[in-house]
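Encode chain A's predicted structure.
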Amino acid sequence: MALDLTYRETIERLFEKTGSKVVPGLERTEKLLDALGDPHRKYPSFHVAGTNGKGSTVATLDALLRFGGRRVGRYTSPHIVDFRERIAIDGVSIPEETLLELLRRIEPIAESVEATFFEITTVAAMIYFAEANVDVAVMETGLGGALDSTNVLDPVVATVTNISLDHTEYLGTTLQAIADEKGGIFKFGRPAVIGEPRLDIAKRLAERAAERGATPISIVRSDWRAWSVSLAGGMTSFTAATPLGRTRLSTPLLGEHQVRNTLTALATIHAAGPEYAIKKENINRALSSVSLPGRFQRIRDWIFDVAHNAAGARALAETLAARPTPPPVTIVLGVLKDKDWYGMIEALAPVANHFIITNPPSAPPERAWDPLPAAAHANACKVPVSLDLDFGVAMERAASLPGTKVVCGSFHTVGDAMAVLGIDPAARASRGARD
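Encoded structure for chain A:
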């Protein structure tokens, strides 16, 4: 990697080389790590997989661990605006210069083993965390579980949030098959936490954990219960019965689905044992610092949500229906072609007064969807539709409309919209704007 390449040029080159290639397997990651001194073994880690909710669970784990005074590395994907969002310590993204230096160091070995984009990124994060002397890292899988490059970890706890149909070309076409793949992160002798709410799929994950020798196995729906959920004051609040006792909890992450994600993170901390324990009376203080861009993130009259499959769209629709939102509601929708856009439109139509169907410019060309049938289906759902293939025109149209504008469909759509509007993904809405 030439020394005179800028940060932007380096990231573009990395995407061009390997951005669209998915080659499951751990061999290349293991070779990279072995050549670079096995940095992932130099700190404890928490490992999180799942179809939806893993970003929220990781963000909550990050806040809980940092509340205990620890220096915490966080690895997530994809990013919203800036690639550096994927790798952070104590909430601060990796500096450009540091990332460039790591990529230059990794490149010769990556070339020799034909490492993919995600494998290179994962190894860069692991080196960064080791050399920065983090106390612990929270690592999110990229795709699946068993064959995801993050699965080289021997974590303190392995957690699977939930299972939905997504990436079926790689993970399988049934919920059970996808559960088997994601359950591949469970490790012998290590606690397993299962956040999946459906009993049959939770049992399948528990069987997978037992097959792999994980112990103990915690099913959140059995051990952590919640009721009296309210969305007000910019918070999701609920009463919970936990192994620590009954308590009233609140998270800044909005939506009834965030109750399960919060409990899954708390169950993960509980499973980690006394070293990571947090007192019941301190939980709300720790949760108050949870921050996650692009999850029902409200900035003025815009709402940004990276929902990118039918289950995520249903959760978004439920949240829109559950809390006061100034009408009319315009949904700016851009989806990748391998996603269930039909199911997403079906889920969002009941809460939409207007769809603007468009194409996010940052989406890889080979994954760009055909918006024409999507617009036709939205129209068939009896919702007025505007079809703007030019993303800039779509955003101008949305900005000119009254009421609430909801941008969703993919990380690309949300990131491109924030870039157009000049919004920092880390921006936090004012309390008044959220109420």
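The first helix runs from residue 7 to 18.
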